[in-house]
Write a structure and sequence with these properties.
about 0% helix; 4 strands; about 80% strand; 4-stranded antiparallel sheet; mainly beta; about 80 residues
Length: about 80
Amino acid sequence: MQNMIRYLVTVSVKQAAARIIDINQTEIVCGRFEQLQVSTKLKNRSTHCDVSLKLYGLSAPEGSLAQVCSLWCKI
């Protein structure tokens, strides 16, 4: 009974973007991602989290800062 899952949370986001702007409404950095999936299992004394992300990009007004496709990681 100690290893039973107490909570299971799954979040899935198909596509999202965010911008950081200064007080003058000037864009500083912009980020976007696609197909983010986070699954968290909370057991009695442990937590297991799986994260998958198909694509992310980070850009500034000067141009692209980073872009990765087909990223997979487990935490």
